[in-house]
Amino acid sequence: MEFWNQHPYHLDDLQVGQRFTSGLHEMDEGQILAFAEEFDPQGFHLDHEAATASLFGGLAASGWHTAAITMKLLVRGGLPIAGGIIGAGGEVSWPGPTRPDDRLHVEAEVVEITPSRSKPDRGIVTVRCETKNQRGDVRQVLVAKLVVPRRAVRQSISPQILASV
Amino acid sequence: MEFWNQHPYHLDDLQVGQRFTSGLHEMDEGQILAFAEEFDPQGFHLDHEAATASLFGGLAASGWHTAAITMKLLVRGGLPIAGGIIGAGGEVSWPGPTRPDDRLHVEAEVVEITPSRSKPDRGIVTVRCETKNQRGDVRQVLVAKLVVPRRAVRQSISPQILASV
């Protein structure tokens, strides 16, 4: 089994403005239908005719499907965080729906870094992730708060503090 | 094929404070592994030993899996919105991870209703959705902005305006 939780960037290695770009995910109609049948069984995600008559004007992936694919792209190298990608939460919006012919990638930018006051081994890193298709259409914006480990404390605290341990 | 987009509540039928409760979803280890393999392949979602050594202290569902199940519960009668549940976006947080033995349901409350100024046929309804397990542990809080249709305009505008149409 292949895990993707061994990545290089600790909190101490990140800086505001730093950017990462993921690989690609090729969407297709089969994936849209399979996800919708399991998790979001609404006509505009399942049926061309119902979708055309809806607000979406054509078959549209569930927003949660776009979110799940975004996570896959981040985990598979799109956002190489030490210990894996652990989200505490975030804000998500879908400016337009993912379509069956979309090839998606994610562009992530570090927007805030907040070391924890109470837990010296970690902090919160806020990352803005835009999921775009091959034409640059933004299909999702996710501003996520991630729990990110610091490098081992012995590397970052002063000898004076070490002496008191 | 079974669609779930025929529901009774238009924007005009909703009021702030109104509450809805969904049916149940029984999580299990197989579902957690299947979702994680496809969308969130990290050790703490895939492997007991890796999960026990992680921040989660044991096998934990992907937060996006909890989000997808929440959507399923809302669509399958948990939030009976006319025309289906169409999210423009929202804020999501995961106070604690969903576990393999969790039985989930969603409690939704209408917190804001904003008719559109530019589009008289719709508005935005903000709904706070808490996804809880059988012990009342909150596994997700989603504050979602939904696009909700109004009842046909002819029912809500005055005869004077109708005369000018």
The major beta sheet of chain A can be summarized as: 6 strands, antiparallel
Mean pLDDT over all positions of chain A: 90
User: Based on DSSP secondary structure assignment, what is the total number of beta strands of chain A?
Assistant: 6
Question: How many domains is the backbone of chain A divided into?
Answer: 1
Q: Which homologous superfamily in CATH is the superfamily of chain A? A: Hotdog Thioesterase
CATH class of chain A: Alpha Beta
CATH topology annotation of chain A: Thiol Ester Dehydrase, Chain A
Number of helices of chain A: 5
Helix content percent band of chain A = 25-40%
Q: Structural class, from helix and strand content of chain A?
A: alpha+beta
Q: Indicate the proportion of strand residues of chain A.
A: 25-35%
Oligomer: homodimer
Q: Show unreliable segments of chain A.
A: 1-6, 154-165
Principal-axis shape of chain A equals elongated
Order of helices and strands of chain A: EEHHHHEEEEH
Radius of gyration of chain A: 19 Å
Structure, explained:
The structure is a homodimer of 165-residue chains. Chain A has 165 residues and is an alpha+beta fold. Chain A has a single domain, classed as Hotdog Thioesterase (Thiol Ester Dehydrase, Chain A). Chain A has 5 helices and 6 strands; from the N terminus they run E-E-H-H-H-H-E-E-E-E-H. At the A-B interface, helix 1, helix 2, helix 4 and strand 3 of A face helix 1, helix 2, helix 4 and strand 3 of B.
Which key features would you list for this structure?
homodimer, 165 residues, alpha+beta, Thiol Ester Dehydrase, Chain A, six-stranded antiparallel β-sheet, 5 helices, 6 strands, elongated, disordered N terminus, disordered C terminus
